[in-house]
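Minutes, project check-in
Item: structure for the 383-residue chain
Input as provided by the requester:
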Amino acid sequence: MRDKGAQAGLRIGLFAHRLAGRHPTGIGRYFRELVCALDALTGDQKLVVSSTREVQDAAWIPSGVQKTVVRWPRRPVQLAWSLGAGPRLERSLGPLSVAHLLQPFPPVRTRAPQLVTVHDLFPIEHPSWYSSSERWTFRVSIELLIRRRVTVVVPSQYVAERVGSSLDVEPSRVRVVPLGVSGTFSDGGSAGDIAAVCRRFDVSPDRFAVCLGTVSTRKNVIALVRAMAKLAGSGLPLVMIGPDGHGAREVDAEIARLDGRCRVVRTGFLPDADTAALVQAATVLLHPALGEGFGLVPLEAMAVGTPVIASRISSVPEVVGPAAVLVDEPTEPAGWAQAMADLLGDEDRRSALARAGAERARQFSWAETARRMVDLYRELARA
């Protein structure tokens, strides 16, 4: 049920670099989950969601949310914004009470009080993970937004600390608003649906490991492939869900090199329902990422009762708490192999982790994320 008075009198502009991505992961899922949760809370078309022109239509945007396309050509206006020039957002969206940039790029101009979600600082802290153009746009955008003294929203205390130390932003301008667990994961799937998805990929429920995310250097999946080879006697295949990213060729080469010592199923990108079914059916979810601004994947696995083994890095310990097994040296395959062997040999431990993980996941919801964002919108609109 919508609280129609929750945001009376305010018009909130939400701007994203892209809204119509075919394979939304990470930040793209943040856009969708937040917009839908805000729509459920506010209603009455108080939200205006916008981006520059895109080839595809963002069909996922709820019918109660106004969708507006900035009318100028995409690349020229984004470049102008990155240089501190260009048209104000109001020329396409109309008057706004507050403008929320859902990621730092592009740094749009607006007369309204402005806030930006900074998901992480990895393009600055780990430049080898990104192309030169990605590094440039991120750095230029962040520097411009900081000079404008916008309010910075981050998903974890870890990112808040990095923003404060690396960008010299005073703590009063940084707000931590954690993410949530989507309904696709919190509701779980039927046994029949789960079995059908497993058959498509030739795996049996509760007899495979799964990892989820863009197949990239940052996600560190080569360490998992090598770890699975060390566990060849277990017969446990690894299902790797996610689109190709920077470093995917190296991953495929390692899979080919170790052919016969481990079975790796590469599914590519999957819709949320199929992903949730495979995660729920897995014996364990493995999350070897070398950096996370929040750690949505292990949290969602916990929500469907799947034990988690994850890297002890960045925000992950903050998000999973004591409800997951953490690997201290995530680039070392031996650590993953040992953690998996220990967990596979201890059914009671797996059951305890499943219970603890489900309890931990219940502390995070997109409805709560939306409520905290609405409070922040109100605060900025009054300032």
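Outcome recorded: The first helix runs from residue 27 to 42.
No further action items on this chain.
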